[in-house]
Amino acid sequence: MSIDDPRIERILAAASRAPSVHNTQPWSVHVQGTVLDVRADDSRRLAHADPAGREMLISCGAFLANLRVAARRESFRPLLTLLPDDADPALVARIDLVPGVLPDADELDLAVAIERRSTSRVPFEDQPLDADVLEDLDKAATSEGARLVTLAPQAPERTVLLDLVHQAEEAAGKDHAGRVEQARWVTSDPDRPDGIPVAALGPASDDALAPVRHFGGDSTSDRAAFEHRSTLAVLTTPGDCVRDWLAAGQALEQVLLTATTYFVHASFATTVLENPTTRAALATALDAGVPQMVLRLGYSTTSPRTPRRPADDVVR
Question: What's this model's pTM, rounded to 2 decimal places?
């Protein structure tokens, strides 16, 4: 579907740069003038790993955050209504783009970060982030009603997290259905507009306790030693309902964009949260809300960007 307004076309192109679980891009948009209805595309949900749609909706929340940031770049004021129709749960949000003032410098920095942000699955520098960077990342999460709990290298909760990541990855490696589902979203097709290209997976870890997703351990022949002192953080929300998942996604993307302005990269350890047992154990260990995402943050080389679907496949 073509879009008549080039500003909205640019906004949706930027919104589509949001991260999503396995780059499934589980969203679609209906455009009526300057009103945008964003829907969760259940056909793109990971039925085995994400039966409740939690990760799908976190992905949609990240899309909403990008949309809002991109709208400000175009001098719109985005009026967001989450879950506007109780009878239509797939309709996750309605955004009314009304005329606004010019964006300020901070808003422009975040808008530029949308194009620069990419997930990095390579080893990071072996050092934690500075305190002022961590403070800004936590403010970004708090602005969306979430919390970013950072785990220092010496924190006992960090050891618990690493052990739980290892347990979850080990269990996932024995889960045939899960590995088959995951393999559907790892691709060597250069023309495919979704999924994770093999070239973007990065090396496999020599350390079983590294907080990285192993993708079955057989997607790449390259191996590397990962760092032990980079920043680990857990994004948490007060509750665990659909609104919390959408809030977590918006908070996640605000954190990632803010991190990008500091040239900080991120990767995700999601398997530990897809396993109900390890997720519950992590929540107990942290005692700081419900864990929605585990992030590894640090400085690294820039990894290849994953592809995105064209606008006519997103706009309905």
Answer: 0.95
